[in-house]
Write a structure and sequence with these properties.
The complex is a heterodimer. Chain A is mainly α. Chain A has a domain of 212 residues. Helices cover 75% and strands 2% of the residues of chain A. Chain A has 19 helices and two strands. In chain A, helix 3 runs parallel beside helix 13 and helix 14 runs antiparallel to helix 16. Chain B is mainly α. In chain B, 58% of the residues lie in helices and 3% in strands. A two-stranded antiparallel ribbon of chain B has the order 1-2. The longest helix of chain B is centred in the C-terminal third of the chain and has 28 residues. Classes of the chains: A mainly alpha, B mainly alpha. Chains A and B meet through helix 6, helix 8, helix 9, helix 11 and helix 13 of A and strand 1, helix 2, helix 3, helix 5 and helix 6 of B.
Chain lengths: 525, 125
């Protein structure tokens, strides 16, 4: 077998391997941990490195227009047997790239950040499980399987949020997270039962092709949107998010950003793929619901962020506001879908919303890592007690400046490019929406400038005289994210044409997704 | 050789355009001009002399920790004037997981009204 054949074989089995590698790695980690801590850390990084390679291999093929399906069980789709089907289109590929990048940088960062902690075999096992769960949610084409991966992600996330068991608030945040996750998951399971009862199918493409938009389908839609939106941290169901983000170790928080985005992906998959064929009054209603939720999310996120005095909790509310932009972009796309004169506007809005998923993950992720670095160096998260750290932590300061500019959507950073698309397109739907979005960005900038002043500027405080720059593994993770942010910011056209546009087209083209499983299907574009 | 053209392309947004590379070049040029102008300044500054001490109209200088403006004081005027807004949204965040679940039920009810009852009413009209 030559290298080309091996790559073909890997490509063919990559949808399964992308989930299998971290899952297997998770169960091997406790064993390897018995050998040596360093060996275990290297093993986890290599496991995620291998997963990332498989993700990029699969994504490079999917972005050329191919949809990959991978069937576990009977290959004959007409047979009524139990099977699971993974279906990877450009939107799924886009999401798995984000998840794997976040996971890889989280474990690199963890090397130094978590080294003082005990129970790290469990920590790394949970990180790998969580990664497998997120990737599974984004790869699967089966709704029940989506629920299973959602549960894997939720349970491992809750355990990681409460990882610092010596801190009561961390345990409380973990408890809140698992309660909220379970409530959401139960309603998702109920909606799956409604589909199965009506159509005898669990596969998303099969359900989409058979969907009649009955009364029960409408109930299922309400349950799915509400439950997944709660998991994504949409206002007013966001309250678990600052608790969890604020109290989890920073290396876990960056993964939680990926987990919330996987839930957001679920909302988009439900609206565009499962209900893609019912483009009538519902798409306008759902579109406007997403737009309104997006606007409320933005406004409440920034309003709460401005009064926070805890570093991580403040960034968490900033992250809530950022989710609003994604909802606004995608919601605008849905709301104008039926209007032929505004199709181009809708696509621009969706491109902005989808591009912002990637930008938010990197920008907010970087800010959380900086907050973790500050905590590592000072053991303090209160903004009222910090100050003057730019003298001692030069690299961290630079990373924070880049993160704050990017998250606030300042040119020439990546956040600006995606927000520009959202501003312009939403302006054509309703100028007030665009004005609110710009206002929220200005407030985000003001909030992060406040953090910058509180933490890094001001006179050198005597109690932080001996504070030193954080270890290299943490700087490497932050530096790598910063580099990607700068590249995305400087060359947005390149990213949008090659990654974002195929993802947008895949999401809109529900017919293509369904036909990959049911070739005889004639609906959709 | 790696093609530079795709990297330098202007990003078309539908109704506008954006070229970050030109923006960066403009910032660098502005920075260079600032550095050149700075070079024309007087070079009489001496470190660790009275020139570097804060002048507080003859008042004693506070301890360093007292000199630093705390996070809670930044935007104080803004948050104080909109206190009623911030107080009301703070009240929402009770920290009680039962209330979190209640908000989920509220949103679900609103979605139910809009998507099911609303559409049926619209359809009837």
């Amino acid at each position: 077998m030559n290298i080309a054949d091996l790559i073909d074989l890997l490509l063919q089995h990559s949808p399964a391997l992308i989930v299998a590698v971290p899952l297997l790695g998770a169960f091997i980690t406790p064993l390897i941990s018995r050998l040596n801590d360093k060996v275990r850390n290297v093993f986890v990084i290599l496991t995620l490195g291998l997963t990332a390679s498989l993700v990029f291999l699969l994504a490079s093929d999917v972005f050329t227009g191919n949809i990959h399906t991978y069937i576990f069980g009977s290959q004959d789709l007409t047979l009524p047997v139990v099977r699971i089907l993974f279906e990877v289109d450009a939107m799924s590929a886009f999401m798995i790239i984000i998840s794997v990048i976040l996971s890889l940088f989280a474990v690199i960062y963890s090397w130094s950040f978590m080294k003082e902690n005990t129970g790290l075999d469990k920590y790394y096992t949970l990180i790998l499980l969580m990664t497998a769960g997120m990737l599974g949610m984004e790869l699967t084409g089966d709704l029940f399987n989506f629920f299973v991966f959602l549960e894997i992600t939720s349970i491992s996330s809750a355990a990681l949020v409460a990882f610092w068991t010596n801190k009561a608030k961390s345990v409380e945040a973990g408890f809140k997270y698992i309660v909220i996750s379970t409530i959401g998951a139960l309603f998702i399971l109920f909606s799956i039962a409604l589909f199965y009862g009506q159509y005898n199918a669990l596969n998303m493409a099969m359900i989409a092709s058979a969907l009649q938009y009955t009364f029960l389908d409408k109930i299922a839609l309400v349950l799915l949107i509400a439950a997944l939106a709660m998991k994504a941290g949409v206002v007013p169901m966001h309250m678990w998010l600052p608790d969890a983000y604020g109290k989890a170790p920073s290396s876990v928080t960056i993964l939680l950003v990926g987990a919330t985005q996987a839930s957001l992906y679920g909302v988009f998959r439900v609206c565009f793929t499962i209900y893609g064929g019912t483009i009538n009054l519902s798409s306008i209603s759902i579109g406007w619901i997403l737009v309104i939720l997006g606007i409320i999310t933005m406004l409440l996120g920034v309003a709460m962020a401005i009064i926070q005095t805890d570093f991580k909790r403040l960034i968490a509310f900033g992250a809530v506001a950022e989710i609003g932009y994604m909802l606004l972009g995608i919601g605008t796309g849905l709301a104008v879908m039926l209007n032929p004169e505004m199709t181009a506007t809708g696509l621009v809005a969706m491109k902005g919303g989808i591009f912002h998923i990637m930008n938010d993950a990197l920008d907010v992720g970087l800010l959380f890592l900086v907050a973790g670095g500050i905590y590592y160096a000072t053991k303090e998260t209160s903004l009222n007690k910090l100050g003057g750290l730019a003298r001692n932590m030069k690299y961290t300061t630079v990373f924070f400046i880049i993160g704050l500019l990017a998250a606030s959507g300042m040119p020439p950073m990546n956040g600006f490019a995606s927000k520009l698309l959202i501003y312009e397109s939403t302006y054509q739907l309703n100028p007030i929406l665009s004005i609110i979005a710009v206002l929220s960005s200005i407030m985000l900038l003001a909030i992060f400038v406040k953090v910058f002043h509180s933490v890094f500027l001001g006179p050198a405080l005597p109690k932080y005289e001996n504070v030193k720059e954080i270890p290299k593994s943490m700087l490497i993770a932050m530096g790598a994210i910063t580099t990607i942010i700068i590249i995305l910011g400087l060359f947005p056209e390149l990213i949008i044409n090659n990654i974002v546009e195929p993802a947008t087209n895949a999401l809109v083209n529900y017919g293509g997704y369904v036909r990959e499983v049911i070739p005889s299907f004639t609906g959709g574009a | 050789m790696f093609p530079l053209e795709p990297l330098l392309k202007t990003f078309q947004t539908g109704s506008g355009f954006w070229n970050p590379v030109i923006w960066v070049v403009a910032i660098i040029v502005a920075f260079l001009i600032a550095v050149i102008l700075r070079g024309f300044g007087k070079k009489e500054y001496k470190e660790k002399t009275g020139q570097t001490q804060a002048f507080l109209s003859g008042n004693p200088e506070y301890e360093k920790e007292q000199m630093h403006i705390k996070s809670s004081n930044i935007y104080w005027g803004f948050t104080e004037s909109l206190k009623w807004v911030f107080d009301s949204i703070k009240k929402m965040h009770t920290g009680n997981v039962s209330d979190y679940s209640l908000w989920f039920v509220v949103v679900m009810a609103i979605l139910f009204i809009v998507l099911i009852i609303g559409e049926n009413l619209m359809g009837a009209i």
